[in-house]
User: What shape does this take?
Amino acid sequence: MSISPPARDTHVVRGACPHDCPDTCAMLVTVEDGRAIRVAGDPDHPVTRGFLCAKVNRYIERTYHPDRLLRPMRRIGPKGAGKFAAISWDEALDEIASRLNDVRASVGEQGILPYSYAGTMGMIQGSSMDRRFFHRLGASLLDRTICSMAGTVGMRMTVGANIGADPEGIPQSDLILLWGTNTLTSNPHLWPFVLEARQRGARVIAIDPIRTRTADQCDEWLGIRPGTDAALALGMMHVLFARGLQDDRYIAAHTLGIEQLRPRAAEYPPELVSAITGLPAAAIVSLAERYGRATAAFIRVNYGLQRHAGGGMAVRTIACLPALTGHWRRPGGGVQLSSSANFEFDRGALERPDLSPPVRTINMIRLGEALTRPDAGVGGPPVRALVVYNSNPASVAPDRTTVLHGLARDDLFTVVLEHFQTDTADWADIVLPATTQLEHWDVHLAYGHHYVTLNRPSIAPRGESLPNSEIFRRLAARMNFADECFRDDDLTMIRQALASTSKRLAGVTFEALLERGWMRLNVPTPYLPYADGGFPSPSGKCELYSARMAAMGLDPLPAFTPPREFPDTATALAARYPLVLISSPAHQFLNSTFVNIDSLRRAAREPECLLHPFDAERRGIAPGMRVVIHNDRGAFTAVARVGDGIREGVVWAPSIWWGKLAADGANANHTTSQAETDLGHGPVFYDNLVEVGAAD
Assistant: This one.
């Protein structure tokens, strides 16, 4: 008699992609006998549409990776050597609490600095119990500026909030400008909407210094010089006014400052803008005329174009365009940087900023300075304890040489919560194993659409890993914090986040999300935020003239602010370092996440750079040659690729490689600076002049 094998327990769990991407995909996780065996995009989700990106398709490989951290560890070798021994959770928590109390006693609570960003975009594992812990502790606050703040503030100064057009309206667009965005890599779920519009006759234009994989798929590529986007927008305004293509009714009803803007735009004729941007004057005129004659033009801007000294102003200037043409009136019209401000979770209840006394704030992009030169601007006591989670600053923070010098300090106590032994974890004193998205609860906003997504744990935590929230909950207990809020579990905190008075969250409850997995905000489809005005600015209008910027001592009108390291103005520097370096993420990586996943790293091959044939010829560089990319701040090596898919005078080095996985132990951030943008105190990663030469 044959015996049938026992039936397998196979089921599907709803989740959310946690990564720093506009798409925030709804995931379906297939679990078999307690082990996750497949992740897929939810086919019913209006944006996810059943597919995941090349990176997150490898999430099972990431979760069960043999190098996954599964136990707490204590450093046993010199800092940076990455040598650790396993310890118990009790030992780890006791040591952390003791060392933090030592810092409090010696230099005060502000000598403790949390460092986190968007390793997860989840509200619970990213910004809940951790914030409560550091607020109650009285630690220094962290200004989390490393990605989006310049553009965010630029949008606020123009339309009032970082709220833009709805991508679900794109199929009704008749012109699409993908401006500074490699959509197929960094926002792939937007592309099906773009294709729908194109099938209906829309023209798709990429504006980018690099002919990216997205630009290759567009109808046109305008290879603009890095950092000159505001000049192009002003040139478009010049043509709009000169041709009478503006929407006078919308301008009169819903904007402020048109009288001041007209003479400003007159200062940017196409010939001047051509000299600044490197685009032909005829192309500038053609772009502006088509934009003005379109009925519903959609502009998608992304965060790369705001990573230079004038980045906030660049986004502000572009954001003025749809108000001048009235494109906000119709589905498929407007500009989108983000939808995040529509997700009005109750952050006060979640993060409890009321627990914090008045303390200093340290800008995360100036970590190197904070760790090595506390007298250079941060003020207050030296940083003696650093707690890193949801970030890998030893790879991603600018001015990497200085950051590593700071992490090497013997008197700096460093704790890292991680999935893997990253560049940053190598410098830690204590490393704590954190759960992945498949192993914990969370709730997610999106910054590229309007759906709230719940993440259910689909498998048990691997090894001894714990959710970030639980780690900080246990640390609070070790520090004897008796406040009731430190006893809230994750489900309670999800409910607290959703218990907002915002009308946009009406009906979005934990119980409804449990049933459905995701829900649209209480906004129409498509959402037309400014069809009838109603801008969330102080005036209630699109502020072409900004009194707030004037009060800040800044130009109140749209303007072109050149990069600090702009070849036309920084002539002495450009004579030594004539190439602008852009180091946007490789298709296989999301910043430094996924770099250690073998299949993805093999696909990325090795650190590379792309040069224009003329630039390569001048330097005697042939394809496949190993080169060094350098400036006064530092250097890294890469393998040269040569092609015409990049502007002359620009070098592209897709990033961000872990130093420990690169042949020379370095990456592009050895050349970047800790300088700040004009608005939002953001980073200037692409405001970076370098030279490229053959490696020895």
